[in-house]
Amino acid sequence: MKRLSRTVRAAVLLALAGVCLGTTATRFDQKLSADKQAVHALNRLTFGPRPGEVEQVRRLGVEKWINQQLHPEQIAENPALETKLQPLGTLQLPTWQIVESYPQNPMAAMIRPPAFAALPPQQMRQLMNGTAEERRNTIASLDPDTRRAVLGSAPPPALEGLPNEIREEAEKARKTEQEERQKEMRRLMPPLNELLTPDQMRTARMGTPEEKLALINSFDSEKRRQIIRALGPQAFSDSPSLRREAMAATQPQLLVNNELIENKLYRAIYSNRQLEEVLVDFWMNHFNVFNGKGPDRLFLTSYERDAIRPYIFGHFKDMLLATARHPAMLFYLDNWQSQSPPDNMVTSGPRRPGINENYARELMELHTLGVDGGYTQQDVVAVARAFTGWTIFDQPKYAEFQFNSPFHDRKEKLILGHTLPAGRGEQDGLDVIDILAHHPSTAKFISKKLAQRFVADDPPPSLIDRMVATFTKTDGDLRAVLQTMFASPEFLSEGAWRSKVKSPLEMIVSAMRALNTDVTDAFVLAQRIGDLGQPLYGKLEPTGYPNTGETWTNTSGLLGRINFATALSAGQVSGLKFDISRFNFKDGATVAGLLLGTSASPSTLAAIEKGIQEKGASPSLLISLVLSSPEFQRR
Amino acid sequence: MFTRRYFLRSSALAVAGFGVAPSWLLRAAAQGDMKRKTLVAIFQRGAADGLNIVVPHFEKRYYDLRPSIAVAAPGKPNGAIDLDGRFALHPSLQQLKPLWDSGQLAIIHAAGSPDPTRSHFDAQDYMESGTPGRSSSDGWLNRALPPAGTGVSPVRAIAVSADLPRTLRGEQPAVALNNLEQFQVRDKDTAGILETMYARTSDASLMAAGKDAFDAVKMIQSLNRTPYTPDKGVQYAGEFGRGLQQIAKLIKADAGVEAAFAEIGGWDHHTNEMPQLTPLLQQFGNSLAAFARDMGDRMADIVLVTMSEFGRTAREDGNGGTDHGHGNVMMVLGGPVRGGKVYGRWPGLEPEQLYEQRDLAVTTDFRDVLGELVRLHLGRKMDQVFPGYAPAEPLGLLQG
Fold first, then answer.
1. Cβ-defined contact of A607 to B197 (cutoff 8 Å)
2. Of A533, A540, A554, the CB nearest to B121
3. What is the pTM of this model?
């Protein structure tokens, strides 16, 4: 390598010095200009500015606007949102009703149960648990029809050790049973070619949404139902209402989940109470529950509505308690089956119930203290013991909280230096919530997470300290902590400006808002967001999705965003439309300004200029290049 | 024949269209032919039924426990394919038999995780993290990659899946690509413009991400430009086969793949197991065999290992299926493998020999299997991949 000349070396040193001086600590002291403040506030408190909003916030004043967002009840809601949410019928239902109306396997529910299960209890007991002699006698005592039906549906243990002729008879009976059940299935759920003529099938599979709807509606309600069920949701990917019906018939639990996802997206895109939606997203992520774990799919609707949303501007300890008691969390982290083993428990043999530490660990590691918050393995065990008995009433049917006293460990517990006396019940768990909510590590952990979401991936300690002071002084008043954060010099600073990478949800929703899109089928967007790596409600691990940017800046994620931007601007993403004529400009700078709310960097503008030279200035090219740009990936 | 030099030449040409050739490519060309070893991890999601996949036909108890879903003994109609007089392959895996005979296929039975969980997602999480009983933020295969300097291939670690699986998450960059043909910038015309935009931005981390993305795209694009035919009329089966084919393509192109991951789901057979297991095993076995055949001589540098989060109950349930269990089968396939043998201590199927009186017990920790492969094939220390785990006696799965 050539030796650097003196001037070049000096220039390099100066540049390095500039970099060093421009450390984040200093830049967090530099206040944003008035122009930038409005953009920044919108980028942080909302899912992205809509056209004209930067100007509105400037006129109102950033401080006033932030204060409004902190009191959403004072903000009139967007009527467009009401319209979008109206068809989503499950959103207001209590869990018990969801469980009842949206069963796991609707088709199985239609077919009669196996005859075996319909035997009187005493005979069934003998057939399952009796000796070979007893079982043979029970079978002999049945009338011929019942005998055939029972033999045809009996599980192998019931037939073990019985003479060969009975086993052969059972084999024959099993075949007959199977044939009968198949016949019944065909009667209740005829195959498509028995319901539709070939021409009709063609329309159903490949017609336009209007043609499909006309065809479906031409039948009486019973046949209509059978046709929709036979076609399944995939046949109606472009007709949201028919797809909803098909899902209700074939995969009702997926429908419940989809309505929750659509609710989230419509609110993120259209609600005027943006900070509320951003906070619900934050707290649902903090108290993550996975929609793929058993009945949690059905519990999530209530979880978000009843255990998270009402508490976002209240006291942290109240949200903490609400999540601890909610069946969604009790099931997700297994506490519902955590029980103190009885003292006379036999240690060998089939799996005995025992204490489950999963919730106790995550409660401290992820929900309150943080992994370095100062708890030990002994604390984990003690907390787990405290929560034994916190379970779900008649899960999954009623799905309410229940304290089950026999499950509870009544012995004394030592937790983080506090002694919980022996002989108590539900109070043990309540005390743990109290201890954790007031632990100094919790104030730090929660403040840091909020600062990461709203200010910067690595928030300055001065900011966190100030938030911790408010948290401690106000007993965890979350609105107060947010006020402290938004009023801090670090928030409206150069250090925070454009420092956060958008998550896939934020990228796609901000594009929707910037383009003033009319979304008619949020399901499509949900799939795109999942493709980019953030399936909504689909985070398996209790850590939730990260609040920092590294995960999202991976190869396929970036590629995915660029391809989404291209498809969107070319009109190739279904279920939505926007007015592209608003972007009929000949220069990149104007379009970039419209979509970013602020100006793009010289390098981005130069690249766009090159694009215009090569391909001519079309709105779709300009939109695609701006939405693909590094600037648009940040907020 | 798709030789290394051909690829370098053609990709250099392809790359010239975008701009400067990626540094790793130039460096690799300068270093000449560099043998690269590859470890391929296959995850069977849903708890595959190991007892019906590698059948312990010498055990009478097997047939007692599964009166309606046991695989018929070797010699009977639809009988299992005998391996060593004790164990036999499910008949759908017949294409794996030649690999067993030639010593490229080894089986470890009664393998698995010591953690008792029977939750699919917890158990998958623990196995992919390589830390039973708790979840790590990174995966064992990512930790198995030694830290790379500059000039490393953008597709050094790849997963054929929509999302990067836990197994490959971690400090070393890894790419999830579902489909080589689709791993591209849709609008070719703007690809160059965007690459410049990202190369010149002052946003350091997005510039780096952009560089990785466009490098990988360009490399894969030049691969796609040359029509790829699998060797000797090899036929991959199903979605799983298609996934293995993507990996095969990249390995054959000397793209620098060191760690690869693919998955196959649909194993959770609580009811009606046999009619579902047969076609699934066909897809599984045929694709693995196709991969081995396609790689040909390159198998000398490749080791492939299969795993599932846990096995299934020894006894069938009342619906012609099985419930979640414990011990399971792992397979290891490759040139360096000491195949033709069933490894591990067989615990037996008597009631007192079963785990919690219901499942095949675990006598070989999965970390012993993976650790040995990582140590001998990738040259990485075990405690760097499975920290805090004290390995048992080596199994002797690989030569050398």
1. yes
2. A540
3. 0.77
